[in-house]
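It is worth pausing here to work through a concrete case rather than discussing structure prediction in the abstract. The textbook approach is simple: state the sequence, then state the predicted structure, then interpret. We follow exactly that order.
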Amino acid sequence: MHFEIAHTWVFFLLPLPLLVWWLVPPLRRRRSALLAPFFQRAAAVSGERPRRSAWVSKRSWIGWIVLSLCWICLLGAASSPRFVSEPGKQPRTVRSFLIAADVSYSMAQTDWVVHGKRMSRWDAVKLLMKDFVEKRKSDQISLVVFGSNAFLQAPLTTDLPTISWLLDQTEVGMAGQMTNIGDAIAFSVKVLQEDTIPQKVMFLLTDGVDTGTDILPLDAANMAQKDSITIYTMGIGTAGTGSGYDLDEKTLRAVADVTGGQYFNAKNEAQLNEVYATLDKLAPVTYEEVQYKPVTLLYYYPLAAGALLAITFQFLNGMFGLWRREA
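Step two, the predicted structure:
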């Protein structure tokens, strides 16, 4: 960290008051005078010739010093003194990343074991997803939850701790008990369309089959493809009769293929972590760094010093004048 003055040219204005004093004529004010009927007789007797006169107000040398110091303080503030730290680099958001998570009733099944503890599918997913979210430092992330309907849980934001907190607040069943995948994709596309960042990625995860009737998942995927949105899909659990899952892997693969994404399947904690690691490679965090200098402005110190000096001088000068009148 070092001290610097941003506008050194300001100090070339130091002699400006002297130029004003030299070039601008003095202020003339008329005042009433004493009228004496014998003035001309007195002038004749004294032999003096009457002439116009003027009173020049003079300021004490202390007043000139105070004014000069106040002027220097004003120039010091205008020059923008500052402490400047070493140049750094700040990451810039380069991608919108939307997570569309299935919170239908089936996600409440407690058939997952994470860190040695048995928990529901949704609790397992969001526990591991929070670690994934924390790594997306250059992305702005949005969270959409869906069941019978799709709802925006968090708009696109770079405040990743808030996304993690909202994941904790999301519970199974809050969006309905069914699994409307097509509606979730279409709703998520609308959220991403509102954003101006060109790179847009959607990560959709579910453990079920589409039960919606309004829009088919593939039709919604075609909408996403037209808007250059890449969709990665993830199926939770094992497809097939008797597995406890009703997973439509064919549709999820087709949705990913249409948009240039990829389908993943996760049956346990290890596979889910592998999915997040693979997704990090397919859509890596990209930093576009902008150079900046941390600056601490100091202009208010000379400005406050000048104001305090002027106020103190006027107060003391007034008190002295009042004391002199009373004396």
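Step three, interpretation. The first strand starts at residue 2 and ends at 5. The radius of gyration is 39 Å.
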